[in-house]
Amino acid sequence: MSKTDVDIEENKKVFVNVGTVGHVDHGKSTLTAAIKNISDAIYKNKDQEKKTLIGLDNIDKTREEKERGITINSTCIEYHTKHRVLGHVDCPGHADYVKNMITGAANIQIAILLVSAGDGVQPQTLEHIKLLNNLGVSQVIIVINKCDLYGLDNAEVAKMEVDEVLEKYGYNDCPYVFCSATEALKESSTGNYTDLGGKAIISLLEIIDTLPIKNIEERKLLPFCATVEEVIPIFVGSGENKKVQFYVVTTRVKNGTLKVGDVIPFIDRKGVKKKATVFSIEKFRVKVSEADPDDNIGIVLKGVKPEDLSRGVVLGEIKLSNKFKGTFYLYEDVRKNPVGVGYRPHGYSGVTASAVTIKNIIECPRLEEKLIYPGDIAVIELESDKLIPVNPIILRDGKQTIGVFKPNEDNN
Q1: Are 79 and 64 in contact (CB under 8 A)?
Q2: Bridge-partner residues for 302, per DSSP?
Q3: CA-to-CA distance for 38 and 33, rounded, in angstroms?
Q4: Could you say which DSSP state residue 375 is in?
Q5: 3-class SS of residue 7
Q6: Least confident stretch, 45-49, 173-177, 221-225
Q7: Regarding beta strands 84-90 and 70-80, do their DSSP bridges make them parallel or antiparallel, or are they unpaired?
Q8: List of domains in the chain
Q9: How far apart are CA 82 and CA 99, in angstroms?
Q10: Residue 306 has pLDDT above 90, yes or no
């Protein structure tokens, strides 16, 4: 099988975003490294280049992404199962994870909830479950980790605790795996898998491969929508003759279907409505004629200047509103005082800005006080002074980014 044949075969796989969640030090980064290595060993094609094993240090060497003062430390790796390509996001800390989720940097469809067999449900475990529920993540896989240290009896108790909490938030009969991520990572270099090590990771990969995800066919019928992630210049020539031939826009399709020749509306960085024509689409390094929901793609657009586009610009039919209901996270490391109804920071939705006001607090840890304290995750009603895109909103007060807000999918 040639390299091109391999790429075309991989192109038929469905792309799914996965994220590890759970309390600090329960083993998220170790598990992510083990999954990557064992997946590569099982699902790589023999004609493909040999993949290099990654270690825990590779997962924890994170890149920084900055957008309007928000910094998200995260690592995104790619691996395969039989029918899917997984984009797996791992965040080193609780605050980073919450920022990542609410701003949409992860957009996860399947959450791997990691719980230590020795600790059971911890405060961040509960917060992450609430957040998954608020953000509409419908599929959760339970992984009880450190079973080699604490034994299967404790693992069973931890699982019962997790089940009880998940059921309160509508997650019933979640699939689960008992494992030792540390042992699995060690075994990934030898291929000698044990029940709690490599074999448990294989079971997890099989669950990820078959777990139903939100119906892509239904989302194909919606208007096309995607957010610009990066604008990359492609050069030709060299030296004094080197020049930009065209620009590639990288993005992930949220809804709708995109085809070569389609005309896409968008609002540029100055808030001006414009249109661009799709010249070409690439997926997994292969040119394709169309792209569907959840596809990660690179597109070349005609009739647009590079200065019109930047990270955060929304491509496609854009829903505008000035009234929002959704999830708000007030950063714990910026403000000292709580905020309440009437608080007016400045909001940035993509590249569009407006003053916004908290109109109502529906749910928060101290609901009786009607106050949101630093570090709290709350459900609120927000109102902007002018119409802005229904997208995650970065909230700033003065020169500081104080939090992020994600509207509900239907904004109701």
Answers
A1: no
A2: 277
A3: 9
A4: T
A5: helix
A6: 45-49
A7: antiparallel
A8: 14-213 (3.40.50.300), 220-316 (2.40.30.10), 320-407 (2.40.30.10)
A9: 31
A10: no
The residue type at 230: E
**Distance between CA atoms of 221 and 335, rounded to whole angstroms?**
43
As a whole number of angstroms, the distance between CA 43 and CA 206 comes to 12
- pLDDT band, very low/low/confident/very high, at 6 (cuts 50, 70, 90): very low
Strands 371-372 and 314-316: unpaired
Residue 248 in this model has a pLDDT that exceeds 70: yes
Q: Specify the pTM.
A: 0.68
Question: φ, ψ for residue 224 (rounded to 5)?
Answer: -60, 135
Closest CA to 166 of 332, 372, 21: 21
Asked if the model's pLDDT at residue 67 lies above 60, the reply is no
d(CA 160, CA 76): 30
Beta carbons of 307 and 364 less than 8 angstroms apart: no
No. of H helices and E strands in the chain? Answer: 9, 24
SS3 call for 187: helix
CA distance 124 to 114: 11
Instruction: Specify the pLDDT at position 39.
Output: 94
SS3 label, residue 317: coil
Degrees to nearest 5, angle at CA 117 with 116 and 119: 65
Find the Cα–Cα–Cα–Cα dihedral 368, 395, 348, 312, rounded to 10°: -110
Q: Is the pLDDT of residue 281 over 90?
A: yes
Top-confidence residue, 152 or 408: 152
